[in-house]
Amino acid sequence: MSKLSIRDLDLKNKTVFIRVDFNVPLAPGGQEITSDKRIRASLPNIQYALDHGAAVVLASHLGRPKGKPNPEMSLKPVAKRLGELLGRDVRMAPDCVGPEVEQLRPAPGGVLLLENLRFHPGEEKNDPAFSKQLASLCDVYVNDAFGSAHRAHASTVGMIQFVKQAAAGLLMDKELEYLNKATKNPARPCIAILGGAKVSDKIEVIENLMKFVDQILIGGAMAYTFLKARGEPVGKSLVEDDKLDLARVLMARAGGKLLLPTDHVVTAELKEGADHRVVTKIPDGMLAVDIGPATIEDYSAVVGKAKTIIWNGPMGVFEKPPFDRGTVALAKAVAASGAVSVVGGGDSEKAVKSAGVADKISHISTGGGASLEFLAGIELPGVAALTEK
Ligand code: AMP
Predict the structure, then answer these.
(1) Pick from 9, 192, 210, 285: CA 20 to 30 A from residue 94's CA?
(2) Could you state, in chain order, the average pLDDT of each consecutive group of 10 residues for the chain (389 residues)?
(3) CATH 3.40.50.1260 fits 6-172, yes or no
(4) What CATH class has 185-375?
(5) What is the three-class DSSP state of 258?
């Protein structure tokens, strides 16, 4: 099933409501944006709408104001930055709904940014009356906020029943294109690399990936829950003891598909530059903080043959060098593989960036939670609600 794209819409002289992801990090006080990455990522879609003769109404949430106005989570600084980046005036609305906002509906070529959607409880409650008010601001609807597509809120789902057409924006389109490419009939071998802190966060992902990938390479702390479940010593490594049975079930179901590290970097204390060594059996009192060189070699060989790679989660405590070696080595192997590669989640993105290979990855997802739900085979409500082609 394919969804309408902004490219399919007639935008001339129409007011388009674009749900964007302007959930940017702010310095304490809420005046200064510390990274404008998300604003920049939304520019091509906004520019597309303007170039095609639309009036643009933008809406986003920022932080967790819990249904009440909070000046520290205002989108005002975003309007300013967006104006600079677009090179045109961006009008800031005092609210996201109501008569005062309706008065501000822009003319074609104009851009209006609504105030934080979550200042109203109706947003997260997906309230029909609030949804209707949002929809009354536009002729057509576009969702470009992939990072919020796993939430059924008024601006991502509710308002769609009150608009004639609802399409995916350019960024959303790209997310769906690559995630679909990697999961539906992928080029083979198709492999997944999973790491990070917990098995429990990624159970559904592992279960779903097992259905279609050829191999799953496990790293990060989650490997030690699997190794302990297999009866191997794990010392003081981070383990989810209440997930050992589940780990056994997953391993039995995966058969030979699930690969675990065969050597480890261990240390007595988790701090940057701490004394460490490589072992094949984790000694008592030590914790494993990265995959070892033999595992790097084995995993890199699998990566080198792959045609499709899905990656989520670091192979070790990559924030504390030298325990970033496994993650950096795999990032380089993925980059060199020539495979279609889809990387998801904030930590995985940081890892490919710190390895200096971000530009060689086919697609870095902008939505951690949403991409995990997609990989877990869960239909994203914000995508399901869009108009069919
Ligand atoms: P996640 O958000 O689940 O992708 O987990 C990312 C976090 O997992 C990072 O902060 C890593 O430091 C952490 N991590 C990865 N490997 C290990 C490990 N062997 N021991 C402890 N934490 C780890």
Answers:
(1) 9
(2) 92 98 94 95 97 98 97 97 97 97 97 98 98 98 96 98 97 94 95 91 91 96 96 96 94 93 96 91 97 98 98 94 95 96 85 90 90 92 96
(3) yes
(4) alpha beta
(5) strand
